[in-house]
Amino acid sequence: MGWQTTFSLSKRAKGCHLVTNEVLGNIKAGLAGVQVGMLFLFIQHTSAALTINENYDQDVRRDMDMALDTIVPETLNWRHTDEGPDDSVSHTKASLVGSTISIPITNGRLNLGTWQGIYLTEFRHSEHSRHVVATILQVCYSSASSNVSHVQML
């Protein structure tokens, strides 16, 4: 079976933000009863991204933000600055980090590693609320056999 919802993350300014609990709060209904499946998260914006990384030490989030600023500096001679000096630099960082992540689901829970969490990487200086589409696909096994050749993603 498939399940899908669109939700908004709280407003946040530039930086890497741990949003695992906020995501879980919005997908709880879709996780119920899923023994084996996949969660796909897609951010509907071109100046923010989603990724998975260290969920414990805040320094990792600060370091990641610093590294992205070093790799893609705002001080380049950007042409597309219609919405301010962080316009094209935000789009470029969003393309590098990505708009989609996928996470396995096992026994109704996200199968993240011990130190993994979901990040919103916000590249705009001012606060924005970001919209995310969550899609859950559940693996269903044929009752005729437990053979892997009979597994279907519904």
From TrEMBL:
Matching Gene3D superfamilies: YjbQ-like
Pfam families, per the entry: YjbQ (PF01894)
Family membership: Belongs to the UPF0047 family.
NCBIfam families: TIGR00149_YjbQ
Name of the protein described by the UniProt record: Secondary thiamine-phosphate synthase enzyme
Organism: Collybia nuda
UniProt lineage: Eukaryota, Fungi, Dikarya, Basidiomycota, Agaricomycotina
